User: Fold this.
Amino acid sequence: MSQIQAEEVKETSFIQLNANKKTVENIKLISMVFVLALLFIFSLCAGDVWLTPAQWLTPEAELFIWNLRLPRVLSVIGVGAALALSGAVMQALFNNSLADPGLLGVSNGAGVAVVMAIFISGNTLHLGLLSGFAIGGAMVITLLLILFSLKQGINNTRLLLFGMALGIGCSAFMAWAFYFSNNVDMRKIIAWTLGGFGCIDWNEAWLALALIPAIGWLSCQGRVVNIIALNELTAKQLGVNIKHWRILLVLFIGWLVGVSVALAGMIGFIGFVVPHLLRLWGITDHQRLLPGCVVAGATVLLASDTFARLALASAEIPTGVVTATFGAPVFIWMLFRIPGGAAK
Assistant:
């Protein structure tokens, strides 16, 4: 066999292998959608009053299913998809496998903006304006992270520590706000800090619609994110304007995180855990990983919220507490998994 024929055989084998990998990843995505659909139905049925799909058109279901559970479930799906997608993009953008909207202080920045809005306006601020404050706070923190990452001599570990320091600072601000707040504001701040969907109805659930354009656009940018995840020099050689895309991605990350915090408060670890679970499952190409994060993030957060509703008979656990309980051990495992403890 000549060298040319050998090269053709190698190329054909590579193309076939790549096609098989895409087929397997597509099957995995379809299976995740199926699991999400089953969990969606189960979450609507589950509660203090269990209602099977056959009972969904009864007068009793009008209150429990259509007015209480459905807006909550849709909001959970939107926030879970937004946080997981933001985490995956941040990990590529900062070239840091430990990047996460909560860990790097982005969610805390949005929380600080929400707390400031509560103090300024009391209980009179419209939810849409509140989300605007949250988006602004998330973008400010993300821009600070990017400016810090552009400095010479800044490695991923120092960037991670800088983000954690920003998050601690924001948490301290919220603690001071909690100390000086009145009873009404105190309850609101506690709700934002713990994170949850207990008060969601159709009056608040409409805000989840604001997530759809950003989720749809960002989940289709896998090819560009693949290039950005390599390195800046390679991206320039391939014709990708890094500065342009950094700003654009920051805007969309701030949008998603800000709206999510305004809707549900501080929900941690979804943006960190979900992308890593999918990578461990073999989905590494961002063209499949980003849509996968949308589905898997919605599934994980919906499972957490359903558990939060059903775990106690007489009370409801904040969803943020559930995600932190399961997410913290995974984060510790990731730290031990990375050689030398360096974030790469």
Residues 3-45 form the longest helix (43 residues). The radius of gyration is 21 Å. Residues 80-341 form a domain with the ABC transporter involved in vitamin B12 uptake, BtuC fold (CATH 1.10.3470.10). The mean pLDDT is 83.
